[in-house]
Amino acid sequence: MFSFARPHRDDVLLAATGLSGGVVLWLIGIHIQNGRLFDAPWVSLLPLVVMSALELLRRRAPVTALAAGTLALVADQFTVGSLATLLMFTDLVYAAVLYGSPTASRRIPVITLLATVATTVGFIAWAPSADAVLIGIVVGMVSFGPALTGVSVRNHRDAAEAARLRADQTALLAEMDRVQAVTGERSRMARELHDVVANHLSAIAIHSTAALSIGDPGTSHDALGVIRRNSVDGLAEMRRLIGLLRESGADEPPSAAPTLASLDALVGQADANSASSGLVVTLDDGREETGPLPAPVELAAYRIVQESLTNALKHAAPGPVTVRLRRTREVLTVEVSSALGDRPGPRVPGSGTGLVGMRERVALLGGTIGAGPRPGGDGIKIWLVRAELPVEERTYGT
After folding, report:
1. What is the mean pLDDT of the chain?
2. Fewest beta carbons within 10 Å, which of 24, 84, 231, 341?
3. Could you give the dihedral angle defined by the CA atoms of residues 51, 55, 56 and 62, in that order, rounded to the nearest 10 degrees?
4. Residue 332 lies in a domain
5. Is 58 exposed, middle or buried (0-12, 13-18, 19+ CB in 10 A)?
6. Which domain-ending residue is among 171, 197, 224?
């Protein structure tokens, strides 16, 4: 469709150059043919002016410019002719293929080829001579040659654009992968920090509250001992995480991630921390399979137990807190149960992020987890956290 936008500066330059060149050739009397219907030299300026004006449309309306240029070229054949008019027509053919629609870029080379063949055959049939072949060659150079050049340039341009789009898509996918990796790493760090810090800080908060509210020096001394122990352990865990973040930049290699072999120590620490709240923490390890577990499974199981014990320290009523481990060839089952109900003494409010973190860990491993009240023995309700983690080797999420 024709556009009234301002012509491209290169098109203006081509039009001005073609017009001025044709005028110069006309002034010095250089023409390309003689004995035409309109033999006055000035008549050849009319097709020249029209052709130079059409050069302004070579980008905005290339097919229209070519159609009008063809009529101007035919009209030029009835005059003494101008070389500038002929050259500008070849540029219109080239521009129609390069800037036209995909359909036009496919059809124009075919049409110009057929026109070249038809012209050559017609002149040979009318007057068999070398001149007839020469005329066919000239027609091919004026029409089919520029069209073929336009096809080549357009194919290279389209290939370059496709390569640029592929590069942009690759960069976009890389950026999406980077953002996803950063988000996943931040989530993993958030879970680790919560699981490591919440357990120790909960014990510190509860025992510091007890030390402040109870006037017995012996009880306060015991509470301060628990506070100190949890502070030291929490600091050690924080140093381990910092070492993991630094990786090779640390002077010493980071500590290994906790495994199920460390559950005895974790349960013993939780039992000591919760003794003043009337909780008795025990470990029931009934795993049938004793082979090694994938590291992500061991870490997830350890963190689930750690977070569950932290929640029991915050909310459980006095009574037993039992950690159970069961394993088959396919699944590792982790259960942590505690008495459900109100209990006296200081309590720490929860934020709810611990359960979210546990669900995220289990989801990354393709397992299942549930947490909620269940009926227990002797009509006592318990709070049960149960997670089932697949133990077969696989590529785990981060």
Report:
1. 81
2. 24
3. 110
4. yes
5. buried
6. 171
**Domain total in the chain:** 2
Asked whether 213 and 276 are in contact (CB, 8 A), the reply is no
List the CATH number of the domain containing 332: 3.30.565.10
Q: What angle do CA 335, 338, 342 make, to 5 degrees?
A: 155
And the tokens for 301? 């199981």
Mean pLDDT computed over 385-396:
78
d(CA 123, CA 39): 23
Token pair 């012509």 is at which residue?
7
Q: pLDDT value at position 248?
A: 45
In a domain, 65, yes or no: yes
Q: What is the pLDDT of residues 88-106, one digit of tens each?
A: 999 999 999 999 999 999 9
**Dihedral angle over CA of 219, 220, 225, 230, nearest 10:** 110
Sort 41 into a burial class: Cβ within 10 Å, 0-12 / 13-18 / 19+: middle
Which range of residues forms the domain containing residue 138?
9-171
